[in-house]
Amino acid sequence: MPPAIIISQALPAQDSSKSKSAPHKLTCGGRMRYNIFLNALVVGIVASPFFIPTIATLAINSYFALLWVCFLIFATVTQCKIRSNLQRYNKTSSKAAKSEVEGDNVTAIETKSLKKIMVTFAYKEPLELITETLENVSKLSQASSVILGVALEEKTPQKDEKIAEIVRRFENCFAQLIITVHPYGIVGEIPGKCSNFNYALRSIVSHLQTKDPTFDPKDYIVTNFDIDSRFHPRFLEIQQDTCLKEKEPYSTVWQPVLFYNWNLDKLSFITRMTGLNRNILMMGALIPFNINVMSVYTASLQLFIQGKYTHPAYQMEDIICYIRWMLMTKRVLKIKPIYCPTISAPTSGNNVFQEIVEWAKQLRRWTIGSAEVFHYFCIKARRINFFAATTWGLNYVNYYGFFMIAQGLLTITTTIYLFVIEKNSPDSLQIWFTIPLGVVYFSLLMVIIINKIAVKTFLKQVEVDEKIPIWKDILLWIVSPFIFIAYNIVALVGLFEAVFHGKKVCTHNAAKKDALVNVV
After folding, report:
1. Rama region for 158: left / alpha / beta (φ>0; ψ in -120 to 50; rest)
2. Greatest Cα pair distance in the chain
3. pLDDT at 104
4. Residues 262, 254: contact at Cβ < 8 Å?
5. pLDDT classification of 145: cutoffs 50, 70, 90
6. Separation between Cα atoms, residue 398 and residue 494, nearest integer Å
7. In angstroms, rounded to a whole number, what is the distance separating the alpha carbons of residues 85 and 376?
8. Spatial separation of the C-alpha atoms in residues 486 and 329, rounded to whole Å
9. Whole-model pTM?
10. Which carries the bigger pLDDT value, residue 11 or residue 502?
11. How far apart are CA 67 and CA 401, in angstroms?
């Protein structure tokens, strides 16, 4: 194995941050004008019961209920495919092992192989969490063929000690270990994963071009993953097979299905329900409707280069990557699932109060980031065809604006209208409104059940072992609508912060990971 490579010098290739004032050209007086439009739509939906006919209010509530049903159907189908796919790979592995033990003469079938780059990121995360995640990656089948990049920040606490320990433990585990240190204070950048990833991957590509005269980005796939991720032992095999089957690999981004069951049974109700919802909505909404990738994703290195990597002046690295690549390549990108479970850590804290504080802080950041990249998309959308831009924009607004923010608040305003303002309305009318409410309540029950099935069947293969009493699940279901409404309220606050303060609040406040060390 070659020795570890340490890269900590600024590259001349930072072309996406040419001007210090570049991010502010996208704003109007420091504010993002297209977010005013988004906010107006959300407020309009929430306030609609007071201004539109009652039957129209019922129709809107029914629409959201149907979205829940639609997302659950897609999520169920995806989870079934994950289970059957893992069973197929496990059978293949068992047959190969049996043939080897029995001494059968098995002719190996040569298949095309992709060169794999995996990049992860760390800033204030404790060393124990970093090494735990890298240990998991080192145990993957085909890990010895991986070029692993570990992207640190110049201001990373105990940076030198972390680098030394990473090199000591993992220098001989991968084809190459490349550690990059993102310089602080580059003009036009904001600190965070976006700028760190932009620097790290450019550095890795520059290194590979220097060392390999036959370097071709079409031969490489890149997996971006957070430092609090845990992979299935056969992830690399499943990923490669999925990528090789794709007919349009340079117009596709692959999303491993994320489950947030990292000791989820030991966390509070609000953290657990949020994690379960995020898993279901990834399988049921983000992937099927090509909305955006999340946290862990794979794409061809060719697409990364054509899409100008990622924009270092933004905070939501996964969403901005997907949008930026569409705009730079001037083509619609497909999001395809990798039918393999990947564990991602939920919001964490040393106690319930800290969990809630971290939950609210991260939710606010996600919402502000979502609003920020929506504005970026609106001003750049003319680079792709009108139909594709409109379709994606409507899906984005429908999901992040209406479903994730307006829906729960609409339930409150509808209830106020029916039982306070129109309290003398016929009982039959109020009964009609219980139907969409009942559908949503049942959907939240199914969210819990679907995840429990995953835990009981295939999540054990990624070291998930949850022991939750039935009364705790019932109580979680009872309070789940209130958790969802609390989510909507915090998200609405973040949405208005983006309107009133613009780029001033678009900063990356890293989530605290210290509490995860106690449950690793």
Report:
1. left
2. 82
3. 47
4. no
5. very high
6. 17
7. 38
8. 38
9. 0.89
10. 502
11. 14
List of residues 6+ apart from 404 with CB closer than 8 A: 487, 488, 491
Tell me how long the chain is.
Answer: 520
Q: Is 519 helix (H, G, I), strand (E, B) or coil?
A: helix
- The per-residue DSSP string of 117-157 comes to EEEEEESS--HHHHHHHHHHHHTSTTGGGEEEEEEEETT-T
Give the span between the Cα atoms of 46 and 26, in whole angstroms. Answer: 28
Q: Is 441 exposed, middle or buried (0-12, 13-18, 19+ CB in 10 A)?
A: middle
CB atoms within 10 A of CB 351: 10
Residue from 154, 203, 157 nearest 178 by CA: 203
- Edge-to-edge order in the sheet of strand 176-182: 5-7, 176-182, 146-153, 115-122, 220-224, 297-300, 252-259, 334-344, 229-231
Cβ contact 255:283 at 8 Å: no
Look-up: residue for tokens 């080897």?
100
| pLDDT per position as a tens digit, 200-256 | 999 999 999 998 889 999 999 999 999 999 999 999 999 999 999 999 999 999 999
Cα distance between residue 280 and residue 451, in whole Å: 8
Q: State the amino acid at position 144 in one-letter form.
A: S
C-alpha 281: how far from chain center: 11
In Å, how far are 135, 370, 413 from 315, measured between CA atoms?
A: 28, 9, 33
Helices and strands (H, E) in the chain, number of each type: 14, 9
251 with 331: CB under 8 angstroms?
A: yes
**What tens digit of pLDDT does each residue of 53-64 get?**
989 999 999 999
What count of other Cβ atoms lies within 10 Å of the Cβ of residue 80?
A: 12
pLDDT (tens digit, 9 = 90+) per residue, 242-264? 999 999 999 999 999 999 999 88
If we measure between CA atoms, which residue out of 213, 205, 95, 94 comes closest to residue 149?
Answer: 205
Half-sphere exposure of 305 (CA within 13 A, CB side): 15
R_g (Cα) of the chain, nearest Å: 24
**Which residue type is seen at 8?**
S
- CA–CA separation, 18 vs 26, rounded Å? 15
> How many C-beta neighbours within 10 Å does residue 427 have?
6
Question: pLDDT: is 358 or 335 the higher one?
Answer: 335
Pairing type for strands 220-224 and 297-300 reads antiparallel
